[in-house]
Amino acid sequence: MKALRVTRGEAGARLVDVPVPVPRDDEVLIQVTAAGLCGTDVQAAFRPEARLITRPELTLGHEPAGRIVALGGAVRGWATGDRVAVSSIVICGRCHLCSQGMSEICARGSIIGLNHDGAVAEYMTAPAVNLVRLPDAVTDEVGAILTDAIPTPFHALYQRGRLQPGETVAVFGVGGLGQHAVQLAKAFGAARIIAVDIRAEQLEHARSLGADHAFRADDEQLGDRIREANGGRGVDLAGVFVGSSAAIAAAFRSVGKGGRMVVVGLTDDDLVLPPSAALARREISIIGSGGFRLDTIEQLVALVAAGRLDFSRSVSHVLGLDEAESALDLLRGHDGSVRRVVVAPKGED
Question: Domain Enoyl reductase (ER) spans what residues (predicted)?
Fold first, then answer.
């Protein structure tokens, strides 16, 4: 079969022939119908110094959807032909973090597409416990991004940031993750949504998705503009969905007294924290958010299937597996028209 592979320590990704994987007893074999790509895949392929890849060679892709074509001997409750999405976070289910409901940071956790072979291939294997059933009302492309691009901002805003109906939120970075943060904040009752980005196209798109205000990140008066748009005070919650220390600093300045800042975007830059007095006297919370739980995906799938959430506009490009290398190049180009990119393999039955 064909798979998009990377080699640890080398830059680039190549579409090559590899054997079809064989599922272990607790796994299933999936014919991949859609695999989302994002900035993490670009970093894994083109920034070997980031050391995201832990195996000598690996198939990329941590946003899978497909259908089951074979079952491991111990798998129950699933059948060949079932349409599924796959959570990329492989957990142990036994550590102190898993037992406390924080499986997204499992002490022994690993990631499909970074630590295990991923989804940009004709076939993949996955633990049966990582599967989420896809109803007919959810397309393969949306099913794929429901495994990461949407649950990540949902977890950040609601499970970590504790956004409440009627609160105000600023979303810093309205690309692949941030655009969904805007949609989710609107759907769940945020009183005012402020989008911040360096790209005019993304700001325009954020407005179309429900942002009430949209400001350029390089505006020297950004903090003043956010407060003016928010009735003269800082926001209740700022979410940072871009890997930039400058964005984190700007987000902190946008938060009002008693507010929260949740950081999702990854950067290698050192962070400069404000004086402790700014934290203590204003009682601002700085929160990290690095994943999601399986039940988060299940909840979002149910909401999409019921028509309560619509992410049909999220995927801007769908390419075949033979164009997988070009799909990565699209993401590398930082074109404002590129939002979510999905590779749609056409495997043999």
Answer: 12-343
pLDDT in tens, 291-307: 999 999 999 999 999 99
Domains in the chain, CATH or no CATH each: 2-148+292-344 (3.90.180.10), 151-288 (3.40.50.720)
- Among the listed residues 13, 111, 85, 70, the one whose alpha carbon sits nearest the alpha carbon of residue 321: 13
Q: What is the pTM of this model?
A: 0.92
Helix (H, G, I), strand (E, B) or coil at 320: strand
User: For 82, how many CA atoms within 13 A lie in the half-sphere containing its CB?
Assistant: 18
| pLDDT, mean of residues 75-100 | 96
Tell me the DSSP string of 58-108: EE--SEEEEEEEEE-TT--S--TT-EEEE-SEE--S-SHHHHTT-GGG-TT
> What angle (nearest 5°) sits at the alpha carbon of residue 338, between those of residues 157 and 341?
80
CA distance 92 to 103: 8
Parallel, antiparallel, or unpaired: how do β-strands 192-197 and 213-216 relate?
Answer: parallel
Token pair of 340, please? 């979510």
**SS3 at position 337:** coil
CA torsion 254-259-264-265 (nearest 10°) is 20
The pLDDT value recorded for residue 349 is: 43
- List Cβ neighbours of 174 (8 Å cut-off, separation of 6 or more): 181, 182, 195, 196, 197, 202, 203, 205, 206, 211, 214, 241
Asked whether the beta carbons of 303 and 276 are under 8 A apart, the reply is no
Per-residue CA distances from 188 to 5, 182, 288 (Å):
39, 10, 21
| Secondary structure letter of residue 140 according to DSSP | H
